[in-house]
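In the current project phase, we have settled on a layout for protein records. One protein thus recorded is set out beneath this paragraph:
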Amino acid sequence: MATPTLEDVAQAAGVSVSTASRVFTGTAKVRGDKHAAVMRAAEQLGYRPNAIARSLASGRSLLIGVLTQDISSPFYGEVLRGIEQGLEGSSYSAIFASGHWRVEEEASALHGLMGRPVDGLIVLGGHTPDERLAAMAAKVPLIAVGRSVRGLEDQCLRIDNVQGSYDCARHLLELGHRRIAYIAGPESHRDACERLQGFQRALADWKVEANPSLIVEGDFLEPSGLLAVESLFARGALFSAVMAANDQMAYGARLGLYRRGIRVPEDISLVGFDDLSSSAFTTPPLTTMRQPTYEMGVAAAEAILATLGGAPLPTADFRVQLMVRESTAPTHRERQRLSPLDPRPAGPAGNGTPSPASAQASEPRPQDPPFPGERL
């Protein structure tokens, strides 16, 4: 049986060859009913458009370059899945390259992507200087995810890391925790710095003095969370809760606590950040801050397609959401203080920043006896 051609598809769909061609190349809009007829005919005939021919006809590569940091990362994996979904149904395909959070590797990966060449570029985080990204944006449409780029603010999709981290810390403070160990990300990461800032701001608003000995830097990977907990115990640090700058480090911290026979949340509460898909299935399920990674990937793809089509960028509002699960609980002292008739945790009402008055009102309670040693 002969391989079906574009002419065969056009004849079966009852349209001109040029109209069928526009459907597959995406060079111009085609009326909905004609578009559907062409796609239906192509499927019935088993027609597969030639990517090289489409590229030559349109004058485009029909490729979207995506600079990620680590393809194996569950966080970036969700974003990439969203990008693929967002491109589905278009004429474009994504090609990926990893920078591994190293400026030199990012530069090499970007050079490789631009050399394909690509019709558009999506950049996920990273350390590439704003000036270099701005120069690339002058050559091809560019969308940045998870970071800001000076001069390209309208082309950046990101969340409020400060507020998200603040809300995580506030959750622990409302449960009565005062000595909270914090596992930070690398200080060279903007996200890590912003999340540390949110944590410290929450402590300040609750009149809790920040203790540098309770802050350990990790690298956003599970082993560093384990090492952070070991480091805290080795230095004799006393704490009733652990807050990690991402879920992967929280997983490592949970293992470290388990190996010492420390129960979560009965002895120590644990909080992460990201809400990776596996966080709802850890033991116990992890309390964490959800950021819409998949949705951001879809939005990035839609934004790059809109730019390539000359359409205005779609508006996107990404908000974080605290997912309270079984890894956090009130301190023992706080449980004893609460009345059975009023089981709500202490702390300011509402979702905003606590007022100085409400923060001071919680202070007369004595400081939590830290773990290990005396139970809380």
About this structure: Residues 285 and 326 are 5 Å apart (CA to CA).
